[in-house]
Design goal:
Distance between the termini: 42 Å
Strand order of the largest sheet: 1-3-2-4-14-5
CATH topology of the largest domain: D-Maltodextrin-Binding Protein, domain 2
Number of domains: 2
Helix content: 25-40%
CATH architecture of the largest domain: 3-Layer(aba) Sandwich
Order of helices and strands: EEHEHEHEEEHHEHEHEHEEEHEHHHHH
Number of helices: 14
Strand content: 15-25%
Shape: globular
Structural class: alpha/beta
CATH superfamily of the largest domain: Periplasmic binding protein-like II
Largest sheet: 6 strands, mixed
Number of strands: 14
């Protein structure tokens, strides 16, 4: 899915190059909300944006080729992607913008499942389940002998990577016989149309379709928790809570003042935009720290190419912002 958010250009002037943004479908609603708010005011209406949701991995491929000024990401940049960016001379800023709770959902007509454990999710979604675990009672003996229809993100999705690392121990460890899409609206429809369906995707898409879906509580190492702002902020929704990011091309940030103004505006209003988009905002004091990271122009990733599954939300934020506490940035 893509959306071209473009004001009508002046007849007398050539339209300027749009700010091309792509990547995560999870982060897409946050940036879409920011763009719509930004373009409501004065001269900002003349700034052109091209916003696409292609999945985090696809977004990073374009970003590291220099084709995007900003990449939306539902996970940190990987070691492979870091090498790709370095090979093309692409340096960047990594800015956290909020939190997500990966939400496991079923159809509202499902009368038997209200909770699921991480072990049951692993039994259902790991690669050994392909073609074998196909009925509800194979996941939990108390559930009926009915076929199960699975709906989940495709391989270009950061949600796919994070979920499989958290549940199956490896980001590539996933069954393949399911309906897959990088567009979360397709996954919503997949579950909403089938009483025997189960899927997973970002919290905002569940929130926007709560009447069409039923979220399951997840039993993990910290006990049973439902996906919510409160459970994420209290660090109880483990291991399916995660930070969300935007990545900014350093060269574009220096050379295109309209990009810098938009990024400053987005971070300054991040708490509001993340909440409006249906996700979980960071504390207001944290957005000030992210602004400091932007103003001080701190380059690179704080995660070293690793996927930070297992960290609490607080630990992930601390790692993401620790670079501004180094002596050269104090």
């Amino acid at each position: 899915m893509s959306q071209l958010l473009t004001p009508l250009p002046s007849v007398a002037q050539a339209a300027p190059e749009p700010l091309r943004i792509g990547g995560s479908s999870t982060v897409f609603p946050v940036v879409q909300t920011a763009i719509e708010a930004y373009q409501k005011g004065g001269a900002n209406r003349q700034v052109r944006f091209e916003l696409k949701e292609t999945g985090t991995s696809a977004g990073f491929r374009q970003f590291c080729r220099g084709q995007l000024v900003m990449a939306n990401a539902s996970r940190p940049i990987s070691a492979k992607e870091l090498k790709a960016c370095a090979a093309k001379g692409v340096s960047f800023l990594e800015l956290p913008i909020g939190f997500d709770a990966i939400t496991v959902v079923v159809n509202p007509k499902n009368s038997w499942a209200s909770r699921i454990s991480t072990q049951e999710l692993g039994r259902l979604w790991n690669r050994q389940a392909t073609g074998k675990v196909t009925r509800w009672n194979q996941v939990n003996l108390d559930w009926p002998d009915r076929p199960i229809r699975l709906c989940g993100p495709g391989k270009d999705s950061g949600t796919f990577d994070y979920f499989n690392k958290a549940i199956n121990g490896d980001e590539d460890n996933s069954r393949t016989d399911y309906f897959a899409s990088e567009n979360d609206n397709d996954l919503v429809a997949c579950v909403a149309k089938n009483p025997d369906a189960l899927g997973y995707f970002g919290f905002a898409y569940y929130q926007a379709n709560a009447k069409r879906l039923k979220a399951l509580a997840v039993l993990g190492k910290k006990g049973l928790a439902t996906p919510s702002a409160q459970s994420v902020q209290k660090e109880a929704y483990v291991p399916l809570s995660r930070p969300l990011f935007i990545y900014i091309n350093d060269k574009a940030l220096r050379q295109r003042p309209e990009l810098r103004k938009f990024v400053i505006y987005t971070i300054a209003n991040g708490l509001k935009f993340v909440k409006l988009a249906g996700y979980i905002p960071m504390p207001s004091s944290t957005y000030r720290l992210v602004e400091s990271k932007l103003y001080r122009h701190v380059l690179g990733t704080a995660f070293g190419g690793d996927l930070p599954v297992g960290l609490t939300t607080g630990q992930a934020l601390q790692r993401s912002l620790e670079s501004i506490k180094k002596p050269e940035f104090r």
